[in-house]
Amino acid sequence: MSHAPNRRVLRLLTLGIIFHVVFIASVFDCYFTSPVVHGMTRHGSNPGESKRLVLIVGDGLRADLLFTPNGFPHVESSPTVVAPYLRSIAEKRGAYGVSHTRVPTESRPGHVAIIGGMYEDVSAVTKGWKTNPVDFDSVFNQSSHTFSFGSPDILPMFARGATPGKVRSWSYDEEAEDFTKDATTLDTWVLDQLRTLFQNASEDAILNSSLREDKVIFFLHLLGLDTTGHSYRPHSKEYMNNIQVVDNIVRDTEKLFLQFYGDEETSFVFTADHGMSKIGNHGDGDPDNTRTPLVVWGKGVRGPVPDSTPPSHDNYSRPWELEHLLRRDVLQADVTPLMASLIGIDWPANSVGVLPDVDPTRVGFLAPRGGEAALARSALINAQVLLEHYRVKHELKVAHTLFYKPYIALEAIGDSGIPARIQKIAIIERLIGEAQWNEARQHSVELIHSCLEGLRYLETYDRFLIRTIVVVAYIGWAAYSSISVVPASDVLPASSFSRKIVDAISVLTFVGSEVVFWIQKSPWTFYIYVIFPCYFWREFCVRGAPAIRQVMSQSSFSYRQQCSQGMLVVVALQSMVAAYTHRSIWSVGFVIIGVLWPCLTWPSSVLSQNWRLALQWSLSSLVTGIFPLLAVDKQESLPTIMSGGVVMLFMGAMYTWVSGRCPGRDDRKTSALVQKMALIVVTMIVITSSVLSLQGKNGLPAPNQIAAWIILVIASIFPFVSKVQHPSATSKIMSFFMAFSVCFVALSISVEGLFYSAFTYNLLLWIEVEAAIRKPVSANGPASNAYRFQADDIRIALFFLFFVQVAFFGTGNVASISSFYLEPVYRLVPVFNPFLMAALLIFKIIAPYVILSVAFATLNARLQLPPFSLFLVALTLTDGMTMTFFLNVTDTGSWLEIGQSISFFCITSLLLVWSAGICAAGEYLMAGVLIPLKQSVDRPKVD
Questions:
Q1: Beta strands, E only, 72-137
Q2: Correct CATH for 51-356 of 1.10.3720.10, 3.40.720.10, 3.40.190.10, 3.40.50.300
Q3: What are the tens digits of pLDDT across the range 926-938?
Q4: Residue 179: which of 220, 238, 129 has the closest Cα?
Q5: Long-range contacts: 485-488, Cβ < 8 Å, 24+?
Q6: Which residue intervals of 94-182 are DSSP H helices?
């Protein structure tokens, strides 16, 4: 029998992969669209309060660890105040608070919010970290000159996007971002370059003239904290020391400006692009990632203010011991209008920030020379900037949207025939002309809120349409893929008349949708989205519906039983959805499949004949189910890593011993396994040396790095190129298990190796269990290419989906991909290289799926089913989870909720796409050893 999937299956798998990959983009079209538009009229600030501004960004700095006294209790001899200079500014001459960031809490979107005043759509983080030219305005572009110093990952973003020659940058080499070395040198380098710049100005008249112009911005990007936090975590002594270095840099920077300019006409802003979770990562909505410090001082800044009633402090900031002073919080984009107001430049055209001083009931940051009048005019400017945003987007909708419904609060036509937005501006201008400053500010605040709500109305205008398309498409995919469970011979086409009606409806729906999208100038992705539901439903109505009805009518299950089974499927899928936020549900799942399922559903004869197998299956499931219960936050544990290596060696030794006692022993196979075991031992030795060296802050020895790479590459490719003939499926599976064991020694931080071992053993037992409780489809002869659906196939498909999820999240945090630790990567890549580091983490993720793929392919063969037959059943079920996650995505609420909702949808979509790939890979990888299983008459015995 041919092992390759037939054309029907291959076409289905290919189409399914394309469909799911394409529809991942739908979450961004629906919930997160780019806010960038062009054509707005610029609005300038009042005359600047200062001549120049210094922006200092401590990349990856948490607010609590900067402000809290005794914030590092576990660090020996830690100072009471870790940043005395910045704290003294907050207490005596500046303003402080928390700058709240949005997800993704990455460097690019964080800096865009600070410097551009806008929040990039979430998908923008996929554009990379480095030299991406930006297509939005920024305070740098509105300055007379900007001098920036710091990381090559950040500075080019703004230099290349600005007016040529306006932004000058000095960056260190990428090789300097070595995670195994002292990252504070990156920060001191920035200070040295600033000092050199001022020194050069004494000999360069042009440079000196540029530096002494008004409206100049200096940007100091301090990457050390981010690098140190990744390497040692934010509660470490190293992170504490780096905060002290940053504090000294702030002090020395202010001294340099005072010495060079000889005046006090400089404003200073200190903040961070994102925080750092306690495991040393960022990217998601963890509150420690979204709360960053903000300290503002210098010319034009209102100094300390006694706290108000109600108090501005909460449980988060009370440990700072600053309760006597007002905590002034902002959203991250609000920093942009604050900086623009301080030096009197035009606000960036794309800014959606709100100047903290516009609200007359709130104490802001500015102490303008113009007093209340200047604040009222700043509030008007803020409203005008946002109204320009709204106007441009509104006019685009009017021009291209059929049956457009305008936002009433701004577009209502009064008796004068003038839109409300224009009338509101006229009222504010009249109040300013009458010197009614507070009233003007209050009206400006109301208009600002209306503008922000109007912008949201326009940005979400198409949401219902996209949701409808997505839901219809996913349900259509489930209907279309259900045809695959019906033998091709049973798929009878509809009558000619019915087919013509269906074709006509499909064509009209497709063409009508495309015309509407063209008129509305919708994104190009809309044109693609609508293709899929039209095709899926057309195929189901023409070919699938009659066949599905026939299969259901011939089923031995009653209608009530079919409904009950359907409800169980829904419960199972929604339980897996809930497990993304409640990890213990995965453990409950192992109890159900490992204990309750055998005890409650197995026939007594099967249970009595296979009690040893049932006992092993139960114990294995319970052991594997322990891992989702373990704490997500892990510390690097060399003994635990080595324990995983020992268990993997034990499994390899036991299999070698058992297979060596079997008749027909193959010495070449035994030799290959011994060689892999030797590689594991060598890896354990090398990694032990590397971990001790890195923990001792001695860097990564070059021989260790070279050896680790060589061993990892050799072990990983060995099972794919080896010509050893495996006598059984288990032999081939163990070959892959031992090969990827090297990966789990080299790249584990704690219990991952133990989980990998338990997971593999559980899968091997699953094959035996399914073969024991179910007779092959063709018990009286060779397996047939024609797959006949059985009700029990749904259970097996659900088991498969369960293992797909557990393989990914068995030891990780289901809330975010950021739960994957970076410490193990430093054993191979000590210098910052995001793509290579990500590749290693992905490789570690893939390893359990290789085992799952070959195990699932073996299970198909043991049950004498055609390739992919069980997976085809899973295809009809999987998008129950995907659709649920899509509808649950939110762009409001806490940043944690937003980040989780995005992660959930993307992860489950990719996992389901991935499951199709691993099934194909499993059939390919096991081709040689599965043919005998498929051709056997009696159920074979796997050693």
A1: 94-100
A2: 3.40.720.10
A3: 776 765 555 443 3
A4: 238
A5: 485/551, 485/787, 485/789, 485/793, 485/872, 485/873, 485/876, 486/544, 486/547, 486/548, 486/550, 486/551, 486/789, 487/786, 487/787, 487/788, 488/8, 488/786
A6: 107-116, 139-142, 155-159
Answer whether 163's CB lies under 8 Å from 133's CB: no
The pair of three-digit structure tokens given for residue 930, joined into one six-digit string:
């599965």
At 293 the three-state DSSP class reads strand
- Cα 32 to Cα 9, 99, 322, 463, 890: the distances in Å are 35, 22, 37, 10, 9
CA 213 – CA 51 distance, rounded (Å): 8
Show the 3-state SS of 771-833: HHHCCCCCCCCCCCCCCCCCCHHHHHHHHHHHHHHHHHHCCCCCCCHHHCCCHHHHHCCCECC
Element (H, E) at 53: strand 52-58
The answer to whether 337 and 142 are in contact (CB under 8 A) is no
Q: How confident is the model at residue 305 (pLDDT cuts 50, 70, 90)?
A: very high
Query: 366 pairs with which residues across the strands?
Result: 301
Amino acid identity of residue 900, one-letter, is: Q
Query: Per residue, what are the HEC states of 358-427?
Result: CCCCCCCCECCCCHHHHHHHHHHHHHHHHHHHHHHHHHHHHHHCCCCCCCHHHHCECCCCCEHHHHHHHH
- Per-domain residue ranges of the chain: 51-356, 471-554, 556-660+667-774+789-865
| Helices 638-661 and 752-773: angle between axes, nearest 10 degrees | 40
- Cβ-count burial of 778 within 10 angstroms (0-12 exposed, 13-18 middle, 19+ buried)? middle
**DSSP 8-class letter at 224:** H
Query: 665: pLDDT confidence band, cut at 50, 70 and 90?
Result: low
Q: Give me the amino acid identity at 732.
A: K
CA 447 to chain CA mean position, Å: 35
The alpha-carbon radius of gyration of the chain (Å, integer) is 32
Burial 66-77 (b: 16+ CB within 10 A, else e): bbbeebbeebee
Token digits of residue 474: 């996913």
How many degrees, rounded to 5, is the angle at CA 397 between CA 395 and CA 403?
125
Prediction pTM value: 0.76
